[in-house]
Amino acid sequence: MKASDYVANWQNSWVIANWKMNPSTQLTVTALMTDLQQQIPTDALQRCNVVVAPSFMHLSTTQQAIQHGSCNIGLAAQNLCAQHADKGAFTGEVSGAQLKDAQVNYVLVGHSERRQYFNEDDTCLIQKIRNAFAHDLTVVFCIGETQAQYEQNQTQDVLAAQLMVVKQLAAEFANTQLGNLASRLIIAYEPVWAIGTGKIPTIQEVQNIHAFINTTLTDIDASLATTPILYGGSVKADNAAEIAQCPNVNGVLVGGASLDATSFTQIIQAFAQI
Question: Is 250 annotated as a binding residue?
Fold first, then answer.
């Protein structure tokens, strides 16, 4: 199947792989995708939406692996241009139009590493999401607090402020014919201090924060009550099953563990059981 043929079941759980700037070669990408497609049980894909987000350099290689495989796997990009949705003199950028042409279905926006290293603020993120929507890309919008904010009990205040991006977009949707925002948006909660550190909030904390995010989204617009809310941050095969049992956790955004086909398959199976 082509990546552009991918169809998600919005009622299913979600497992999204963020490969970041990994692996280093196309050969490794092809081997990883081959292993993954051989290991994922067919019935798991009927109950769990699986998406992979390779680097820009590896989008084509990953798309070809999806096309020549038999698994229903979605393709995501890790970023897109804020300045223009289609084309222009923006050296080093990739547009929403180019991503759509490359058979990309999803795009990550607002990841903490983009906020931290590239100083992406709400104005930038809103424009990126607009550009993604202009080409029918589903947005995985990442939010999360730092270690200092967590220790100062500011988590909810930080997340509420970050979700003002969604509030502005919801207002724009209400005044246009853009359709249903809830069907084009996924929220990924990633506490910054848990990303790649091996640390993880307690299950009760994860549960409470996801409930808070769901309530905040519902207060913004009742239709957003059905928006998938994923957890991210040191998700591994050995903690996936416990995370999967949390109310309001509709899936996970997986970093390092998604670079191992066996580990990633175990995470998928954990969320295919709920």
Answer: no
